[in-house]
């Protein structure tokens, strides 16, 4: 190495810039699993169903300028992470004629932690829309391996140098139960099953050679206009006085996240050579609601950017959702955290991605773990 290069290297280290570059170069690929919070188009690669409003404008309006199958106005957390790490946006795993050597996105809108049989056994078969559970996505991953590596050793080498993002999972599982109007006490009994399923998925990936995994928790579902509209007739004391969110529903999310973090702690002890990072959606969205000004968002009741006049002040209407006739997008999605009543805006996802990479919305942050 030339003397000038050594000086440049030293300056980068002093300035704190080298760790990011090193981390970016050390990830060979990203493999992502999840639901509509991370779907990059798997649901629409073989054609757009007539009923699917999320594949129409204004979805995709902010960054891509057209719908991509992402359920937002632009990029998702996984997109921001890939770009920050110097990797291309991950192609949906079902894409035709795509290269998956730098990673793949297996997430699909409607994805659940549990398989359909669980919902059917508990009387929720009519309310679940399961397009690909975590374990179904893991089978897709298994089927893809011959196209990205030539031997088990080569696969393990690739996976040891890759970042795996496992979720979030659970949001659609709880949506099926809440959509069936099961008592909340009954819904809480499903939490251990959902978390155990996620744990089994993590262990399957570790068995494949994964040593760096990001495991996101669920959102504070009581803050989302879809649930605020469906469960509108709650007593005043059921709402957070500052947030306007439904406290009992947020408690469900909190319990899920607490059990998931406990599961992660167990897996860390069981697999000491593996880094498992808990990624926090819950705190981030709570911050957006309670301290909107700090994040560049409008201080208001949880309200969609894209929707239609509905119940209360939420700009959400189940009969005229974003992408459907009668719905419209706000002029500036960047000052809203909520996109369509269920999902987040590109601006919100950008803040969350930064928090996962550098803190404070991850334990430990992705790059902090990588720099050890």
Automatic annotation (TrEMBL):
Q: Which Gene3D superfamilies does the record associate with it?
A: SGNH hydrolase
Q: Which spans are transmembrane here?
A: none
Query: According to the UniProt entry, where is the signal peptide?
Result: 1-24
Record's keyword terms, sorted: Glycoprotein, Hydrolase, Signal
Q: Name one GO molecular function term.
A: hydrolase activity, acting on ester bonds
A Pfam family (short name) is: Lipase_GDSL
Q: Which family does it belong to?
A: Belongs to the 'GDSL' lipolytic enzyme family.
Name this polypeptide is given: GDSL esterase/lipase
Please give the organism.
Hordeum vulgare subsp. vulgare
What gene name is listed for this protein?
LOC123443139
